[in-house]
Amino acid sequence: MRRVFGAKKNNDPPPSIQDASDKITKRGDTVEEKIKKLDVELSKYKEQIKKTRPGPAQEAVKARAMRVLKQKRMYEGQRDMLYNQTFNLDQVQFATEGIKDAQQTMSALKSANKELKGVMKTVNIQDIDNLQDEMMDLMDVSNEIQETLGRSYNVPDDLDEDELMGELDALEADMGDETEADGVPSYLQPDKESDFDAELNLPSAPAGHTAPGRSNAQTEDELGLPAVPRASLRG
User: Fold this and answer.
1) Which Gene Ontology terms of cellular component type are present (predicted)?
2) Residues contacting 125, CB < 8 A, separation 6+
3) Could you report the per-residue pLDDT of 100-115, keeping only the tens digit for each?
4) Domain presence at residue 174
5) Do residues 64 and 34 make contact, with C-beta atoms less than 8 angstroms apart?
6) Does 54 fall in a domain?
7) Start-to-end CA span in the chain (Å)
8) How many domains does the chain fold into?
9) pLDDT, tens digit, for every residue of 70-85?
10) pLDDT digits (tens, 9 = 90+) for 32-58
11) Could you tell me if residue 91 is inside a domain?
12) Helices H, strands E: what count in the chain?
């Protein structure tokens, strides 16, 4: 029949590394569950051995415990073998993904290199240098324009700075003469003669009376003004 009709071809894709790794990991988990059950059974036999007196009964319990222990060792060997296979598959998958990433990186670099070459063809270094020189010249011209517009009018350029400093010092000296040590100008200082009278503490003459010893002194009215003699008023 196969010679006449031919055998059916299997067109299913091969399993991936991830599929194989997941399958082996699942088998390892199943073996791990069996080992845990055997551990529980060994714990029971251990308690029975402690409670049983030495003799045929204790030896029978030890034999069963030995059988379970052998099964546990066998399953542990299978589990370790499956986990080693999973580890190897993970390493292969990591290497494969690294190669794929390297291929993508190379493709991106080639595309960027091609694009960069196309852009560099449109750029001329000499044009950039000329543009920079032109910009510097324009900045110099702009500075000159600003300086020209900021120039002051009617200010002579041939002034002697030493002469100006001398006039400034003289002005400060004049201002210092007008000001006493306490910082009050001389025209605001009290009169020296009034200060002298205050130091003598002389009493002032009464208003409207003639000072003793002075026959020619004039009398003053209630406002402090010199009083006019009555004889002059009659005439």
Assistant:
1) multivesicular body
2) none
3) 999 999 999 999 999 9
4) no
5) no
6) yes
7) 182
8) 1
9) 998 999 999 999 989 9
10) 999 999 889 888 888 888 888 888 888
11) yes
12) 7, 0
